[in-house]
Amino acid sequence: xxxxxxxxxxxxxxxxxxxxxxxxxxxxxxxxxxxxxxxxxxxxxxxxxxxxxxxxxxxxxxxxxxxxxxxxxxxxxxxxxxxxxxxxxxxxxxxxxxxxxxxxxxxxxxxxxxxxxxxxxxxxxxxxxxxxxxxxxxxxxxxxxxxxxxxxxxxxxxxxxxxxxxxxxxxxxxxxxxxxxxxxxxxxxxxxxxxxxxxxxxxxxxxxxxxxxxxxxxxxxxxxxxxxxxxxxxxxxxxxxxxxxxxxxxxxxxxxxxxxxxxxxxxxxxxxxxxxxxxxxxxxxxxxxxxxxxxxx
Length: 297
Prior knowledge:
By secondary structure, the protein is mostly helical.
């Protein structure tokens, strides 16, 4: 039995054309569903924000969370190999600068790093000749790295070996857009002796978060002060006053020292501002009582 027994050749042609049309329509629909529709769905989505790494993710730079390491005594260094700038020393200094300093001072040393805006005073513009605390000499910058600068965000970098600090010195001086001053012979001789005698002691270091954990464990909340009726009328908050007295030593020197310190920090220290009106005899009595109270703890 043949298919021609049921349909003529003309009918078979029409059926074949209809079949091809249906298959083509199905194919076009599939292309539309799998390519065009997903694009339409995402067309009105808001643009994705920047890929901001979270703390602990790969690439996150947190200079306060460096791995813990044990301190050591560095070996002596030939002064000639560190006091004269070389491309190798500057490259070493560049690597250290990018890890330790660029977040504040900026990659080019202009004081425009990403953290600069949150600091007061602002980080130094290392390209400028103005207001160097210790001077832009070898010994001056080395001293700044060794001790830091009080009253600023410039911390001590004494956790770095002396040779690494000198590499940083040479890199910092390379940023200068002004004539660099020379060290006097005495300062250079002192630096040379330092490197020849010892490479310096590198202290232990731990991440700040771990240090805070230790401090929290060691901290003991001072007990509230036990005061007489007359002293209780003077001190506004015995708990806060006890905390302040335990953390300070200046007030122990004399009644006048107590009066000066207590009124200067009132009312945050538990003393009321009205304590400034107390007589010298009242301060003397309170001073004696507080000394006894602190000694008996």
